[in-house]
Amino acid sequence: MELQIDRSTPVLVTGANGFVASWLVKRLVELGLTVHATVREANRTEKTQHLIALGEQGPGQVVLFSADLLKPGSFDDAIVGCGTVFHTASPFILNIEDPHRDLLDPAVKGTQNLLNSVNSCSTVKRVVLTSSVAAIFGDNQDCAQSEGGVLTERDWNTTSSASHQPYNYSKTLAEQAAWDMVKAQNHWDLVSVNPALVIGPTLGGHSTSATHDLLRQLGDGRMKPGAPPYEVGMVDVRDVAEAHVRAAFLPNANGRYIVFNEACSILGLAECLRDRFTDYPLPKRELPKWVVWLVGPILDKTITRLFASRNLGIPWRADNSRGVKELGLSYRALKGSAEEMFQQMIDLGVVSK
Predict the structure, then answer these.
(1) pLDDT tens track for 79-120
(2) Whole-angstrom distance between the N-terminal and C-terminal Cα of the chain?
(3) pLDDT in tens, 194-205
(4) CB-hemisphere CA count at 13 Å for 102?
(5) pTM to 2 decimals?
(6) How far apart are CA 74 and CA 191, in angstroms?
(7) DSSP string computed for 28-45
(8) Which of 51, 88, 145, 180 could form a disulfide with 130, with the two C-beta atoms 3.0–4.6 Å apart?
(9) Calpha distance 29→57 (Å, rounded)
């Protein structure tokens, strides 16, 4: 499949120093594009040095801009002249104090503010939104409500709320807001990339992504007695970045694309690491569901009894064939992705025995 890229116009990437966005910027620069990269504070070089380095490596360029998701008009300067916009900026954190402040407002208002800037810029023809499978399902038991017990792009998360699965709720509301806004105009179109749990190495070093919290718990002994019996789709971060590129530059790309390699349990993720990291206290079994239901809320506030009831021990099933057929996606093996991610966390001192 041949990408149709106009290198005479820049592209915009929001939240450019994020986990997925950094790999996306790298790929865009490799394709020779000028990337307008927005971050919260462009002058904080400890947060942006890897982006600066990517621009220096070329053949494309990186131009940094400061932008605030919650500030109307914040993206107006960065979007000038851009033909394509990638909206990746959105928090992925599970341990939160205020769901509206920490998740819902940045996700929903941030998307609306960005798309208002798109509406004011006549050069933009396509927006690629980083959504999530969290906008497709709320709990694993939702799979059973899908046709054939398998999630597809036709499904929407209807079971999450600000009090239950607030991250999933934030991604659902943000994507719905984007589809509402694209219907109200006719000069740009929207493609949504909906990845499952993203794993793999970072380009910027330390990450606040919840995925890194999960691997940290696998490595530091907190799950040594056993892993929760939880399963979800997983995908390498570089494959997610490639999905964004193809969603942007394949003219016939449209709608939503579920992006993942395979469903994997937390224990399965530990098994990916066991051969190489023999000195770390990785779990060797799954805990019974009733044990996690009983003690989970005491040990981790994100594991509520409602979450345990609706997710643990319930298979996760989804169909990724649309992205394979229409975008030409192929996927790295999860084992290598997990090993690279875990080794990097050890090297950075994030995981210790």
Answers:
(1) 999 999 999 977 665 566 677 888 888 899 999 999 999 999
(2) 45
(3) 999 999 999 987
(4) 14
(5) 0.94
(6) 22
(7) HHHTT-EEEEEES-TT-H
(8) 88
(9) 8
Angstrom distances, CA of residue 272 to CA of 207, 341, 348: 21, 11, 20
Question: Is 111 in contact with 178 (CB distance < 8 Å)?
Answer: yes
* Residue 294 phi, psi (nearest 5): -80, -50
Ranking 52-56, 65-69, 87-91, 291-295 by mean pLDDT, the lowest is: 291-295
Which two tokens mark 145? 């409500």
pLDDT tier, 295 (very low <50, low <70, confident <90, very high otherwise) = low
What are the structure tokens assigned to 254, written together? 């449209």
Q: Is the pLDDT of residue 224 over 70?
A: yes
Q: Are strands 262-265 and 231-236 parallel, antiparallel or unpaired?
A: antiparallel
* Three-class SS of 67-112: CCCCCCCCCHHHHCCCCEEEECCCCCCCCCCCHHHHHHHHHHHHHH
Is the CB of residue 131 less than 8 Å from the CB of residue 157? no
Q: Which neighbouring-strand residues pair with 113? A: none
Which DSSP string do the residues of 209-224 spell out, in sequence order?
-HHHHHHHHHHSSTTT
